[in-house]
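4.2 Preliminary Data

To establish feasibility before requesting continued support, the project team ran the inverse folding procedure on a target of 161 residues. The structure was first converted into the token representation described in Section 3, and no sequence information of any kind was made available to the design step. The complete token record follows.
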């Protein structure tokens, strides 16, 4: 008994594309960075993407702020992670800036019981710690960004319940 060979498929086929052969893992590759080249590098992590963005008053800078813990507590110490960007380059933290942070209750005419400390963690990356909003009401947190002899302010206003 002879074995019968299956018929060969003679239809024209296109070569597999990189997107058909590349395994994409969620959270590993920025969709804007995916291209047809399977050897392309992965996009760098951008921890500031989930942070609240606020422009400075004159529009020179953009700050991105994340509190720790995630919800600002009344009467308890918390920290703010802050990234400073040139408004014209909002994907690369500014390398040559300094930052100071303070807060005020404009309706009451007073601020924080003590000034927070600010530590630079990298270019344009800062952590302000020791903040404590001691009472409910309208608060403004001020971010003074300095480059050379010029300082520009950004602020965030919110009501603490």
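Position-by-position output of the design step:
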């Amino acid at each position: 008994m002879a074995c019968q060979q299956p018929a060969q498929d003679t239809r024209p086929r296109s070569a597999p594309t990189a997107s058909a052969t590349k395994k994409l893992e969620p959270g590993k590759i920025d969709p804007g960075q995916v291209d047809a080249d399977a050897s392309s590098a992965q996009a760098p992590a951008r921890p500031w993407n989930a942070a609240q963005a606020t422009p400075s008053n004159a529009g020179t800078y953009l700050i991105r702020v994340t509190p720790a813990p995630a919800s600002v507590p009344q009467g308890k110490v918390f920290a703010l992670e802050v990234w400073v960007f040139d408004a014209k380059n909002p994907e690369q933290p500014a390398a040559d800036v300094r930052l100071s942070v303070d807060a005020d209750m404009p309706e009451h005419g007073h601020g924080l019981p003590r000034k927070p400390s600010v530590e630079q963690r990298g270019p344009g990356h800062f952590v302000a710690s020791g903040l404590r909003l001691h009472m409910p009401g309208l608060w403004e947190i001020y971010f003074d960004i300095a480059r050379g002899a010029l300082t520009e302010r950004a602020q965030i206003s919110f009501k603490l319940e």
